[in-house]
Design goal:
Elements: H1 2-18, E1 23-29, H2 34-46, E2 59-64, H3 75-84, H4 105-111, E3 115-120, H5 127-130, H6 142-152, E4 156-158, H7 174-178, H8 181-187, E5 191-193, H9 196-200, E6 209-211, H10 231-242, E7 248-254, H11 256-262, H12 266-289, E8 294-300, E9 303-304, E10 308-309, H13 330-343, H14 349-360, H15 377-397, H16 412-424, E11 426-427, E12 433-434, E13 438-444, E14 452-455, H17 456-465
Helix pairs in contact: 2-12, 3-17, 4-17, 6-8, 10-12, 11-12, 13-14, 13-16, 15-16
Amino acid sequence: MKKLLFLAIAAIAVSAFADRPKYVFLFIGDGMSVPQRMTAEEFSRKSGAGPLAMNAMPFSAMTRTCSADSLVTDSAAAATAIACGTKTKNHYSGVDPEGKPLFSSAAAAKKAGVKVGIVTTVTITHATPAGFYAHRNNRGDAYGISLDLADSGFDFFAGGGLDVNAKNTLKHKQYEEFGDAYEYVRSKGYKIVETKDQFLALKPGDGKVFTKFTNGALDSTIDADGTQPTLAEMVAKATEMLDGESGFFIMAEGGRIDWAGHGNDAATNLRDVLALDEAVKVAIEFQNRHPDDTLVVVTGDHETGGMSMGFAGTGYALYMDRLANQTMSVGKFGDKVNAAFKANPNLSFDDVKPIIVEAFGFKFEGDAKKDGMVLTETELKGIVEAFNHDVEFHKSKIEENSQYDGEKRYLLGGECRIVMSHKCGIGWSSGAHTAMPVLTTAKGRCAEKFSGFIENTDIAKVMKAFYE
């Protein structure tokens, strides 16, 4: 009788185990909602690359993103909801509104004996990855989050590294013993990898991995020079390192989509969406090899920037292909202009024209009605005015214009960014997060669970159930 009871319980356990995917990929585009996905989709189609892999998945769900204390969520609360299945307050990571620790889907996978990887294009202690392993009521507690990371026991961490401010900012007692947060990570058995070559050379059996490519975020895709791994390369390495009999759970974040959204930098934004899609393709290729055992889910934590496809100046026309003319982020463009100011305090507009052409592909000569990249009289006027402002602002910074009382920031990059968006037919309503729902798409085993209109917490509830 006891033997029969044991066999029955064992059969139920095997059945429950069999009902879940062995391999789970969860992709999060930080700041990515429908407009970001569709802008990248149209750009990809126009360039001949076809539709996005994330948009071609067979199941989809509109996903509500509000936090426990605001209709507009921040990344920490959103990540906590997606990871743990509980709405919490903005700025809280991995804890409920009362500050009590929550259990994430990644932690549930680890407890079930599944290998876990966390991948991001920003710092590994940033809000989205932290939602899967940290327990802090202050997303800015970089040192404390670093300790939680090391204590998680997760198998693979890849991204920019710890936050540059991951030091004794909040007087942690552990700082007296371990000092630098990297030392604490190392003390927990992690192999710290610092270069792309070292990273790509990793082999299964090398133990727990933590990357330190920088002390900050990785470069935006548009600015990348090949010295850092791409998100797709990091996901591919994670699958190689974690694949095995127990399976794996991998969360991969395209973190710089959000940063470009805050800056209303459309070309930079879409290239990071495309980079996320390349990583999704890695997962889909894996899923094609393991069709009965793999689940791939793509979502966003919130929308950033109030992006829209359609601008009054272009009527009903959209020109996504014009974004191909921009070769660098607005931030990198600003660095180039600032360097030019430092090299020549008497910088003229003619001196800065070549930098504008290099960065945005604008043309100062020609017929704007026949060539959309030719600056109109109004566009040129706005850019010149922004440059003239920057001249006076720069003089105030080097104490050559003590009477300056204008706006305390450089405006040229922002004005060029506005012109580029308008030329393409892209509008922005905000420089912050919005309450717009995001799109969740899924493919593979149990993908049908991501359909209809859902809460972001439902993602965690589905995934945690795999490991219970």
